[in-house]
Each structure stands twice: as C-alpha cells, then as structure tokens.
Amino acid sequence: MSFFGFGQSADIEIQLDGSDTRKMAEMKTEDGKKERYFLYYDGESVSGKVNVNLKKPGSRLEHQGVKIEFVGQIELYYDRGNHHEFTSLVKELARPGELPHNTSFDFEFNQVEKPYESYSGTNVRLRYFLRVTIVRRLSDIAREMDLLVHTLSSYPEMNNSIKMEVGIEDCLHIEFEYNKSKYHLKDVIVGKIYFLLVRIKIKHMEIAIIKRETTGSGPNTFNENETIAKYEIMDGAPVRGESIPIRVFLAGYDLTPTMRDINKKFSVRYYLNLVLVDEEERRYFKQQEITLWRKGERLRRPLQQQLMAQQQTLQQMSLNNQQSKFPQSHPQGQPPEFSPQMTAAGAEPPSPQQSQSPMHEEAPEQLPTNPSPQPQARQQHFIAPPPQPEPELEPIDDDDTTPKLPSPPTELPNSIDSPEEEFLEAEGGLPSEEEEEDVDEREPVKSSSAVTQEPVPVAQ
Q: Is the pTM of this model over 0.90?
C-alpha cells in the first residue's frame, strides 16, 4: 500500500559531528556549478547522527532494516551504468521491525581510509558519500550526502629545475628554464626564456597551463585537454640574446593535484605549454609536464593568538619583576622607595637600629647646617614632623629611582618618604658621631666619578 502513497513514509536527515566548526570546500558538479561540501582527510573518522522523521504522526513505519553506508566510487560518464566502488563500509542502525515515532541513530566510521582525492572532471567523477537506506518490501527510502576529501602531500625531496633547449634548425633556437618541476597548488612558477637564435619574425609569445584528463585503457583511452590559464608574455620580435621572465601565480586557478592511474580508471596531468606565433600565423609550441600537489594549510589565527598570549605572559612577568623590585609607589607621584626588606645589590642589610628609626622621624635641627642654596629654597615647602627623642641621622644610597645624585657616603636607608629629605641628606656634610661608629665598622662606599656634584632638582 505504501507503494501507491497510502502507507507511512519518512524523511531522513544526516547530521555530522562538528559540522558547525568543520571546514567546507567547493567542487564543480556535472552541470558546471560549484557547491560546498564538508571537508575530510584520509584516515579521519566520520561520525554523526541519522534522524528519521515520520510524515504521518501516530502511524507506524514497517521496515526490513535501517543501514548506513560510506561509499567511495568512480563514475565514468560514458559508462554510467557501471559504478566502480573502491571503498564500501556498512553499519546496521536498526533490525527489521517497526518505527512507532521519530527516531535518531548514532553512527561512526572510525579512521576511514580515503586513498584518493575527490575529483569532478569532463569525463569522470570520483566522489565520497554517505547513504542511509530504510529497507522495505516494495520501495526503499534512501538519502545520500556527499563529502569532499582532500589528500595532503609532503614536500618532495627531489625537486629539480626544468631546463631545455628547443627550436627549428637554422631558424629559431630558444632555451627555457623553470625553477622547479613540482609545485603545490598555491605556488608560483618562476622561469626565463633565452633567445639564442632568431631568424623568423615572431609576432607574440604566450604560456598556458593545460590539464589533460585521460580515461579508460588500451584502445578505449580518451584524452580531454582543458586550458586552465593562458596569458601573453611577449609582444613583438625579439633579438638574439634577449631573455623574457616568466611568473605564474597558481593560487587564482581551479587546480587539483596530479593524479596518475587512479584505481586504473583515469589520470589527470598538467602541462606548461609555451607557444610562439610568427607574422604568418604559424604556431610553434613546446609542452613540459609539471607535477602539482596539495600542501596543508597553515592555521594562522591560532598562531597569532599564541603569539599574543606569549607577549602577554612576558609583559606580566616583567610587571611582576618591577613590582617585586618596587613594591609600592608614593601616592603623590613621588619616586618609589625601597622597603626595609629590599636592599640594593651588593649593599649590606640595615641593622635593627636602622630599621627602627625611619628617616621621617628626624628633627629639623639635626639636619646639616650648611646645605646648598637650592635645597634651602626647597626646604621652605617642607613641613617637618614633631621632633622625637634621640633621633638617628642616616645618609641614603644612590638608587635607580633618583638618577644623577651625588654618591652617598654610607649605606642604604630603609625608606624615603619625601624627595626634599632625600636631596638634603644627599647634599649634607659629615655624619654624626653615632654614624661615624657605624661607618668605621663597615666598608666605605666609593663614590662614582661619573656622577656630577651639582644639585639636581627632584620632581615632586
């Protein structure tokens, strides 16, 4: 009854895993249009889900089994009745029975071998597809989904240049040279043509890329030539000793890798055709075969993200090093100060007495009596804290935060709170009696001759 349209029927939908992120590529169909298909590579697993949606809800679908096939086949257009399958894998999704409602089936073809690349030419087509079949008594329900397969190759070890001398005896003698004999599909053909003898009037010269498709074998061999690209490289009559450069960019053309004896059914080869036309419209040509291969594409976007992440990591490390060297800066924009725990390289750590008497506890009367005129002018804006009993006067050391200051006579203080005090102490005279005892016990620090003795203003 279902054969006449009265029974239950169903729609089949195939969903591939990772279809949202999987790359797609274009390929020509039989009518010359381009369609996009999901792209796979050799050895890659094919998995997904099959959804069977019943057209009449509430009615059951009787079947003799549900299966899915992964097929790779070669179809010759002059022999459409015979399809040559070189890969055929079958998975059983459901045993004979009934489907009472919409059902989904999971499938997976693990690490499927795909030995050849998908191809659609003039007389032959090589395709991969998934086919889901619901077997029934009168008519089966089937659905196919085409996949595109690319075969990646490695860089050839031997890639010699092409160099050949051709011509017509006592009329024309030229020498052409191409940099390589094997090119990938995004490569550039670079070459030169040398005119060794010219005794005919050449009108122009052109170069073309020709694809030759060979199908069949023996007496039933068919050759089909297709000109992929052609352009003129010279116009006018050359003279002896001239050289014409050649540069052909292959990325802009619809090319496939070279295929030789694919399953003993067909071959695809490419040739560089050099043609010279004289003023009498006579054509002289020379063909040279080249080999094309597909190279894996580089993933540039993840690489850029990786480089950016590395740069951010380096910046974070440098920032952490700076923060460890200068833990905190003055809130009013003054130069950063050394903490009691962080001392300069080569300097001795301060004694407990020094760490207990920070510089901001000094009384104004304990400062040196004869400072330079510029510190006196800057001292007018300095408000000293109230005096403390028995303060200790400690000179400071030259650090990275206050460049071009005079070299200190003693070791490093534990902290600096204001540039005015730092500048006054740097320009001060001899230390007090308590400091002389500490200086005798320590090794004096030699002053640098490169540091100027003139006072340098410190920014507030």
A: no
